[in-house]
Design goal:
alpha+beta, Uracil-DNA Glycosylase, subunit E, eight-stranded mixed beta sheet, binds iron/sulfur cluster, elongated, 13 strands, Aminopeptidase
Length: 388
């Protein structure tokens, strides 16, 4: 190298920041206070050079909810605290609206130093620049170490950078906004390790060709929940509702309109209160669903509810509905200790006759309990399948 002798002269490539890795700066077996202090000396990427200081997460170490932003802004950089600028005001209002006490959250960013460019606008102004994937990856060891110590129940990713920091570069706000996803716990030693969706093996799988004369579906209990499955379920539910199925939505509905209901079921599933049964065709398309919802009441834990029983309208009359009901009964038996399945349906649609053909008995009926329209009231019919 001209003008230098190897090993004698320090070049830019010798600087720690040229390696884009905060890992060597993250202390092992440190608590949050020690992490915060150590982050102040991080040189894991070049962002520290222009920024005022590291902005590390404050908040309750026992917080069940972590709010994860992108990076500090101008005011955060000056004050050394996250979400104290304009974005902080929006976040505070959103927490208030959601009924979440900010004091019981932990707030942090995917990238700990402020990235900006200077612009001549009424004097010199520091304008936010989004961190690159390389900078975000360099900073991830800090986030991983924080999450390992906090072990929160919920991490709210506030934007694309936060989502990518947790799920990788394939994360898209447009596809995954508002959805509840599962994550592997970060490594406890603070080693750089991205969070990944949790996807256990299916607990139940059977081919449906033993039921009826229809096409064969593969039924899976608790399939890994990813974007294709969520989108497939939303499409199925919207198709069923728009084809006139009495499934709780008033047509016309869009996939976006049913997504909120699906989210509630997925939250219950994530909390262990529900199990998802999905029937897919040979192409892997979602053609049937049912949620098996476990009872929380201590006197009713010996039976479960069956919700969102849906079969694609294109498969009606081909035995797929019976396949789904048989798979649901088999799944419930497989859970153990359950004496029955309960479901409700709308009277006057013929649904009770279908369920009766699947072995269910009508055990209750509330006249006119369902108001489809001002001049259209239907009975709410309760059906019961004994499992023993
Ligand atoms: S942005 Fe992160 S990795 Fe880069 S210097 Fe700051 S703390 Fe270290």
């Amino acid at each position: 190298m001209p003008g230098t002798r190897r090993g004698m002269t320090r070049t830019e490539s010798d600087e720690p920041e040229s390696r884009y890795d905060a890992g060597p700066f993250v202390p092992r077996r440190a608590d949050l206070a020690a992490l915060r202090e150590a982050a102040g000396g991080c040189r894991g990427c070049p962002l520290h050079r222009e920024a005022t200081q590291t902005v590390f997460g404050p908040g309750d170490a026992d917080a069940r909810v972590v709010l994860l932003g992108e990076q500090p802004g101008d005011q955060e950089d000056r004050r050394g605290e996250p979400f104290v600028g304009p974005a902080g005001k929006v976040l505070t209002a959103a927490l208030e609206e959601a009924g979440i006490d900010p004091g019981q959250t932990y707030v942090t960013n995917a990238v700990k130093h402020f990235k900006f460019e200077l612009r001549e606008e009424r004097g010199k102004r520091r304008i936010h620049k989004p961190p690159s994937l390389r900078e975000m990856t360099a900073c991830r060891p800090w986030l991983t170490a924080e999450l390992a110590l906090l072990d929160p129940q919920v991490i709210v990713a506030l934007g694309a950078t936060a989502g990518k920091a947790l799920l990788g570069s394939s994360f898209r706000v447009t596809r995954q906004r508002g959805l509840l996803l599962s994550y592997a716990a970060p490594a406890a030693d603070g080693a750089a390790e991205p969070a990944r969706p949790r996807s256990g093996p299916p607990l139940f799988r059977r081919s449906g060709n033993g039921y009826g004369s229809g096409m064969s579906l593969t039924f899976t209990l608790d399939p890994p929940v990813g974007a294709p499955l969520r989108d497939g379920i939303c499409s199925l539910w919207a198709d069923v509702a728009n084809a006139g199925g009495a499934v709780g939505f008033v047509p016309p509905v869009t996939t976006a309109a049913v997504r909120g209901d699906l989210l509630k079921h997925l939250v219950a599933m994530d909390e262990g209160r529900a199990r998802l049964l999905v029937g897919t065709d040979a192409a892997g398309e979602v053609r049937a669903t049912a949620f098996l919802v476990l009872n929380e009441h201590r006197l009713m834990r010996h039976w479960l509810w069956l919700h969102t029983v849906m079969v694609h309208p294109g498969l009606q009359g081909r035995g797929v509905g019976r396949e789904l009901m048989a798979a649901a009964a088999e799944s419930a038996r497989g859970l153990g200790g359950l004496g029955g399945i309960r479901l409700t349906c709308r009277g006057g649609t013929g649904a009770e006759h279908f369920y009766a053909a699947c072995g269910y008995k009508e055990v209750g009926r509330v006249p006119d309990a369902i108001k489809v329209a001002d001049d259209d009231h239907r009975d709410d019919v309760t059906m019961w399948l004994p499992l023993v």
